[in-house]
Design the sequence.
């Protein structure tokens, strides 16, 4: 088990800066992020976009800011668990918490800081009433092991790169592949779109355009998919697997079940120290809400600083905190 | 003033009057008017939770750019009259338009 003072959920810019503020107060941090790299939205979605409202930087590229933050926190040697999603939170008798990820990594800490930004990115699901009943029983939102589909009847839905790429890949593996797309054109890579159309022309896959899946059926496992075309005609396809590929959408994920006060998909906090309604759990950055909240990186930095002053009392309950500027102390490491 | 109509998820319609020359997106106007939309990404066309269907006036709107079209294409329930409210600037092109809110609620 990993032990630390503060476990930070989310390794975006605000989570990273919280490591620095914690380090100044001699508190150790461990960060967990569902993405495989640090930087959150900045690295994942817009690494090359310039940001203009970071003090001292007239303009800074998102990835440069992340890289600089990593340099800034390096002296404090934080721990990282990347590519794993936080699942469970368990309070211990001494007041500390144990956080467990979907991969079984456990982190014991005195304080939990949620810096999850937009939240976890989860698969966007089509509006099919009984879809969730068939999850793991024929319905999957990603292809982890293509061999699972060998000699099976597979229906894919979507029009982006994932849907196109997996249709092409599975055409050589599956017994039967059908791609269903609501439009009559694809936004994915033109080369991939051409390949899919060619596969359909050769009769190696079935391509249903201007169509949507409207219902699915089965008895314990998926058996049939009902498809409605734009002209309202309906056809039933025999299917062992359905793979809807409609991209990702941000959700709070398991954090929503931790007893925190949630207001419009954000965590309500006390602006004195950005604490939540649950003792020893704080929320900073875009994931929190309070009157006057501005979703700005620089606001998240401010929140991180105040949060650490408060968290100190849980990490060092017998010590008095005296505030000092970095110009006085420099950056004292452990 | 620019006047357009919003149809909420329950089918109720309300006309909104917005002064000309304000630099707001339709998403920002909807949030300011207390409509229940997530708009999680804050207007970057990244989450599609401000998805609207243009029931009337689609042809008068500036065409969607690639970023918006890419995101719309990930939506299982999008149609040819779908737009992202965060990518629509509120100006004279919205006069008389009718938008139905389609994105996830909060």
Sequence:
């Amino acid at each position: 088990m990993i032990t630390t003072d503060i476990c930070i959920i989310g390794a975006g810019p605000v989570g990273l800066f919280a490591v620095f503020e914690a380090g100044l107060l001699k508190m150790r941090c461990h960060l967990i992020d569902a993405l495989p790299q640090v930087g959150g939205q900045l690295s994942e979605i817009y690494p090359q976009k310039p940001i203009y409202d970071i003090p001292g930087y007239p303009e800074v590229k998102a990835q440069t800011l992340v890289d600089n933050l990593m340099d800034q926190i390096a002296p404090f040697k934080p721990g990282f668990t990347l590519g794993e999603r936080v699942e469970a939170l368990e309070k211990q008798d001494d007041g500390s918490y144990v956080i467990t990820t979907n991969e079984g990594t456990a982190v014991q800490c005195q304080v939990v800081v949620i810096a999850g930004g937009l939240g976890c990115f989860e698969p966007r699901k089509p509006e099919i009433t009984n879809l969730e009943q068939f999850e793991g029983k024929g319905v999957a939102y990603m292809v982890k092991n293509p061999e699972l589909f060998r000699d099976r009847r597979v229906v894919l839905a979507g029009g982006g790169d994932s849907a196109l790429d997996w249709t092409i890949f599975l055409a050589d593996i599956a017994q039967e592949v059908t791609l269903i797309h609501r439009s009559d054109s694809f936004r994915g890579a033109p080369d991939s779109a051409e390949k899919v159309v060619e596969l359909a022309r050769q009769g190696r896959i079935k391509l249903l355009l201007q169509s949507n899946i409207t219902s699915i059926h089965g008895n314990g496992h998926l058996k049939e998919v009902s498809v409605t075309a734009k002209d309202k005609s309906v056809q039933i396809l025999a299917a062992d697997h359905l793979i809807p590929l409609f991209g990702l959408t941000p959700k709070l994920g398991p954090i929503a079940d931790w007893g925190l006060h949630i207001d419009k998909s954000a965590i309500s906090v006390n602006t004195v120290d950005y604490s939540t309604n649950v003792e020893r759990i704080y929320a900073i950055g875009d994931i929190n809400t309070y009157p006057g909240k501005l979703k700005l990186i620089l606001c998240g930095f401010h929140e991180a600083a105040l949060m650490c002053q408060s968290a100190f009392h849980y990490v060092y309950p017998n010590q008095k905190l005296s505030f000092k500027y970095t110009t006085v102390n420099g950056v004292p490491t452990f | 003033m620019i006047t357009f109509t919003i149809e909420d998820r329950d089918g109720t319609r309300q006309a909104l009057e917005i002064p000309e020359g304000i630099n707001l997106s339709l998403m920002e106007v909807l949030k300011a008017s207390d409509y229940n939309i997530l708009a999680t990404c804050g207007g970057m066309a990244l989450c599609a939770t401000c998805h609207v269907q243009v029931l009337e006036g689609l042809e008068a709107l500036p065409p969607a750019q690639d970023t918006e079209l890419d995101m719309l294409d990930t939506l299982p329930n999008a149609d040819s009259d779908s737009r992202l409210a965060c990518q629509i600037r509120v100006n004279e092109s919205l006069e008389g338009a009718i938008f139905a809110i389609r994105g996830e609620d909060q």
Summary: The two ends of chain A are 21 Å apart (CA to CA).
